[in-house]
What does this fold into?
Amino acid sequence: MSRLLLEAHDISVSYGERTVLAFDDFTLYAGERVGLVGENGAGKSTLLRVLSGELWPDGGWRAEYAPLAVIEQSGLAEGAEFSPALRGELRVQPLREGLSGGEKTRRRIAAAFSGKGGVLLADEPTNDLDAEGLERLRRLLRLPEALVLISHDRALLDEVCNRIVLLEEGRLTSFPGNYSAFRAELENRRQYQNSLYRQALDEEKRLKNMIQRQAETVSQRGKLPSRMGNSEARLHKRAGGATQAKLSQSRRAMESRLEHLERPDRPRDDPAIAMKLGAATPVVSRTAVELRELSLTAGERTLLRGASLTLPTGSHTALLGPNGCGKTSLLRRIAAGESGGGLRIAPGVKIGWFDQDHAGTLDGARSALENVMDGSVYPESMARIILARLNLRGGDVHKKLSLLSGGEVAKCALARLFCADVNLLLLDEPTNHLDVFTLEALQEVLRSYAGTVLLVSHDRRFVQETTERLAFVENGTIRTFEGNWAEWEQRQRRDEDEEAAGLENTLRWLRQESAE
It folds into this structure.
């Protein structure tokens, strides 16, 4: 049997009147790679703090039997000592002003792996990482004896994890397998719940109809036929009374059965968004944004040199490239909304900007709904539908923004953009801090968005589901691919096969020449 490395039992954590954690057991054995999933605000980061020993729970206990290492969700890993090998492997940048989000993440990862932790607790370690950084992280995640991983990157959860733990209403439910297996099991349970709910509704309807028919029969039996003598009437009443008593007894039995009928919880339906978002102000021009021979600098660094890019109106484009190549700087340049210097923004284009520091655009003293309705061109009912679609629903929409988690604040910022009078969305890492369920909902909303979208994301599956064009920032220029991520990968494999075939033909020719 595998060695027990970490355990926690009878854990309870509350913040004020709100219970965040209330579960019986969590155990982690050598060889386990656990993906921890749950909606924003469910308490995933709190659970990781309890498991690491940073937070002492209100009730219960935990014990560790191996050294622990933690990848924090934020911070600069100031004062950390990095091993030379990790510094080179992760290309860790010195601590300085202006580090990109990905460069900060690399420092936090290197700090965690520079220790001797047998157990790794990782809280969103993929935030802002480029494709190269993600690949290096995947290799490193094979090293610890055991892993607990919070991540919105479903591809990573599929590749790394062999168990998924769902945190919901403070309780833990364990599922064997990776994320895809977990989602399939959830869908099976949802369909089963739907089936039970429909069966209960059908049975309730059937009992009510039978009770109604019984009542009508009793009423009809109580009426005397016309032209009946007194003696006949007495006999009829006596026989009818016995029948009525039986019918009444049967009806009471059915009413009791109806009263005690078990009614499963109604499955939660995700509300549909009936109207096309982003189409309130159409753009007449066929091209929403055009870059032609654009140059861009950051301090003394040249980010872009003579770069060109076209965003057709209504297109959805992913802007891809390594950390620090200038993707965020380019989005900020477009978000400024001023043509010139190689940038042309078509008349009628109204820009919505989702910055990585989106919280700064919202009012923490106002509620989530009030923030979304500020500048909305849609009624409150539509704002509520969008918030609910992004898994912020019920009384949570009336909470002050300052009381919400980072992921819930991100939902508000996104919902505010969808409700605003804009037709060009610039999204800089919109999946950061979102739970996997909201991320999948965001995909659905973006897929139906009628406006133009330019987004930066290192989530391969999200890019595949939401964009049909790719723009690669490489060596100060921009190269465009007309197709989605899967088509680009197919093209890459074909090019590699052709290159390999060409090399093989060359080697064959050289061998023939040598033989002659």
